[in-house]
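call fold(seq) -> tokens
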Amino acid sequence: MHLSAKHTEFFTTLGYTFQDENHLVRATEHPSAPRARGGFERYEFLGDRVLGLCLATLLLQRHPDEAEGDLAKRFAKLASRPVVSEVAENLGLDVLLKVGGEEWQQTSAATRLRADACEALLGAIFLDGGFEKAFQCVARHWAAYFLHDEHPPMDAKTVVQEWAQARALPSPSYRVLSTQGPDHAPTFLVAVTLASWYAEGEGGNKKQAEQAAAANLKDILLQNSLASEGRGPHESV
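ret:
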């Protein structure tokens, strides 16, 4: 593969240069792209597991005395679609992606596609250079997220649940609205209802979708609280 200026710049940002560029090519060709040679979903499947192992290892190193439950909360945030998508955007992965049509960049599909591509990239690095190279990339490009995570995050479902309890309201109710996509990478759409409030969220599994829906509902509750109680913009739900 002839390396263009954009590839050279990307490798510099990534901190890794492929020995076999075919891994990179196949990991950045979305199935929707014309004449895609296939492999994107397989690289993504592998990269999802590579990312999980890298993040779990880094968390154990950084928090040697923390309980499993708190580690799991940190992990869920670091491996979430918005964070993985943001890493891809920071890397400039968009310039290498081959996707059928350009409209994805202006839709909600962009977050999912970038996250999938980032995982495919990690799968490609693992196959090309081994676990240590993939681990170094994750450690480098997730470093800022570790630095800004001093305390275990309280997940959105817990926040919404406690908000309801504090007001003597029934517990929020979650239900799956739809499931789309291939079996190995489905997208769940979940709705949450709390009294008269309603929100939806998407995720790669039911739990992630519930958390996304709860996070959206939390934003709605916050705006409602600010409007009805006259609270300051920095106060939490």
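The domain at 5-147 is CATH 1.10.1520.10 (Ribonuclease iii, N-terminal Endonuclease Domain; Chain A).
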